[in-house]
Amino acid sequence: MANPCDRCDGKCCRYVAIEIDEPVTKSDFDDIRWYTAHRGVSVFVEDGCWYVNFATRCNFLNSDNKCDIYETRPKICRNHDRSECEGPDGHYCLEIEFRHPREVEEYYTNVVKPKLAAKRKRKARKKK
């Protein structure tokens, strides 16, 4: 059986992304600042879901970025939906990406904080 990933450059095999809860509070965003303070760690949003991303290469990815154990690869690899492939013909579109604590702080200050302030004002008006 031909390996459908033969044309791929193995992008999906060079990181691990774990879904996290959407940050809501200043403390949540402080956690994200901490994540991004570590080399090779970023946080991104795709399709409305938040992920912490660890840039780390799979031990089974060879120097040509091909899987050395393709026929016996783990289930998570077999279940990867190739229609969402990040390879040369695929797409990779993130809504938000933080690679540095400064980016998280700027986002919180310029986007989240104003939304929270507007929400508090609406609540205060409703109480009147």
- What spatial form do the alpha-carbon principal axes imply? elongated
- Helix % is 25-40%
Q: In this structure, how is the largest beta sheet organized?
A: 4 strands, antiparallel
- How many domains? The number is 1
Along the chain, the helix and strand elements come as EHEEHEH
Give the strand content: 15-25%
Low-confidence stretches: none
Rg calculated over all Cα atoms: 19 Å
Question: Can you tell me about this structure?
Answer:
The chain has one domain (11-127). The protein contains 3 helices and 4 strands; from the N terminus they run βαββαβα. It has helices at residues 26-36, 75-78, 101-127, and strands at 16-20, 41-46, 49-54, 96-98. Strand 2 (41-46) and strand 3 (49-54) form a beta hairpin. The longest helix has 27 residues, at 101-127. The mean pLDDT is 87.
Any descriptors?
single chain, 128 residues
Topology record:
Elements: E1 16-20, H1 26-36, E2 41-46, E3 49-54, H2 75-78, E4 96-98, H3 101-127
Helix pairs in contact: 1-3
In short:
It contains 3 helices and 4 strands; from the N terminus they run βαββαβα.
